[in-house]
Design a protein that fits this description.
Length: 106
């Protein structure tokens, strides 16, 4: 009897584990997508506000247009020294270039 119960129990357990693994994987994918789609910098916004181009910024910081475009579109993030250089060039506080990770409640 115990042997028979074990043989029924294991396939059910394996199915449940597989369902859990798939659900866990989907949750991780959703979290990853949320994090990847969240902007981290405001370089593009500040350039637009100042009437400056990405080409201009690329020349100022000595980076290629493609690198600066990736910064502006949040596909990659500048290093801290580059972020500091950008803040100096745009004459803004470095914190203005970053998107806060905290929700502001009023």
């Amino acid at each position: 009897m115990l042997k028979n119960q074990k043989s029924i129990f294991l396939p059910t357990l394996k199915k449940n584990i597989l369902k859990f693994d798939i659900l866990l994987y989907l949750c991780i994918v959703v979290i990853y997508i949320e994090v990847e789609n969240r902007p981290m910098n405001r370089i593009k916004e500040i350039l637009k506000k100042q009437g400056r181009s990405q080409t201009w910024l690329a020349e100022q910081i000595g980076k290629s247009y493609n690198v600066v475009t990736n910064y502006c579109n949040n596909h990659s993030q500048p290093s801290i020294p580059v972020l500091n250089a950008i803040s100096e060039i745009l004459d803004v506080d470095v914190r203005e270039l970053l998107v806060s990770n905290k929700k502001i409640t009023k």
